Amino acid sequence: MVEVVPLRAFKDNYIWTLRDARHAAVVDPGDAQPVLDYLARERLALVAILATHHHPDHVGGVAALTAAHPAPVYGPRGEPIPALTHPVGGGDHAVISELGLRFAVLEIPGHTRAHVAYYGEKMLFCGDTLFACGCGRLFEGTPEQMYASLAKLAALPDDTLVYCGHEYTLANIGFAKAVEPENRALAEREQADADLRALNRPTLPSTIGREKATNPFLRCLEPAVIESANKYLGARASTPTQVFAAIRKWKNEF
Ligand SMILES: [Zn+2]
Known about the structure:
This protein is an alpha/beta fold. Helix content is 36%, strand content 24%. The chain is built from nine helices and 14 strands. The chain has helices spanning 33-42, 56-59, 62-68, 143-154, 169-179, 184-198, 208-214, 223-233, 240-253, and strands at residues 3-9, 13-19, 23-27, 45-50, 73-76, 86-88, 93-96, 101-107, 116-120, 123-125, 130-131, 134-135, 161-163, 206-207. Strands 1-2-3-4-5-6 form a six-stranded mixed sheet, covered by helices on one side. It has a six-stranded mixed sheet with strand order 7-8-9-10-13-14. A hairpin with an 8-residue loop joins β8 (101-107) and β9. It is globular, with a radius of gyration of 18 Å. The structure holds zinc ion. Zinc ion is lined by residues 53, 55, 58, 111, 128.
């Protein structure tokens, strides 16, 4: 039985750790120390590292981890991932046999040029592309790319558990309410997630179904979202990608 444990790093990063009684794999270890401490305390062998993209708060701990615990490192082909042993792209799989896990690699460019997600066992590890009630900034990609990447993730089954890289949920909900003030699912979500944060618990994982109901970046076909985008633009967005680009820009200024 595999359990998913969030290890905290920096201000608001999560290093998702998949474990059984003896083995562990980590996703996006931006810092080695929380992982080293956890492996020692729980007496676990590190059997894989999965990287979604090259930003230091996601891969900064990889070199120190592999120095202490040699393990395969999966990461996007075409991004500078330290100690990368298994460069992957769309259609590839990350197989962690010790944990009985097999993840499909999804290419989801936009935040970075070759960002990937790992999907399997009803779990999605999506780094800084899809956030709970938000999405990543467009550092290296275009709105077209990011919109297509988010659409790819939104097409996964509703009960897929969404493990993203940061605890940004409450701030994201604040913006989502500005876009869709009448969305009741959003108001309910705010209450539930505020309760979790008050107890210092993660608001993650989310689910694809919850994101489709509340995340404005997955709702660019909703009349209320289109109307808000048009208001922000002072013009009519004529495609869903333009709606997406408008609210992404608005969020940067929010
Ligand atoms: Zn990033």
